[in-house]
Sequence to fold (131 residues):
Amino acid sequence: MGRVVHFEVHVDDMERAKKFYGKVFGWTFEDWSEYAGVPYFGATTGDANAMGINGALMKRMGPPPQPGQPVSGFACTMGVEDYDATEAKILSLGGQVALPKYALPGMAWQGYYIDTEGNVIGIHQPDENAK
Fold:
């Protein structure tokens, strides 16, 4: 099986993206640009002993996604403890709603947003009472 072991978020403004992901999700970053040969910051997304993967923010090498166009890559979804508080952070830091909060009945709350770089991201709060 081909298990996902790393992700890359392509960004136009590295500092803006680091601020967004750091403040919304608590990610921390390490400069790996020397190894990658382009602006590239490794992202630690949580406790190494918890479920999930780490990734990176990478300087975008072409035009950004255009509003209203279909997603042409992977949309990563982050697990959160408080959907509404996370949404408030996303919006306060310049993100936008792409698909509002909806229930996955008996399982979770889910929604999608556009980050400060034009990428689609999801958030997911487990909740057995979602309906």
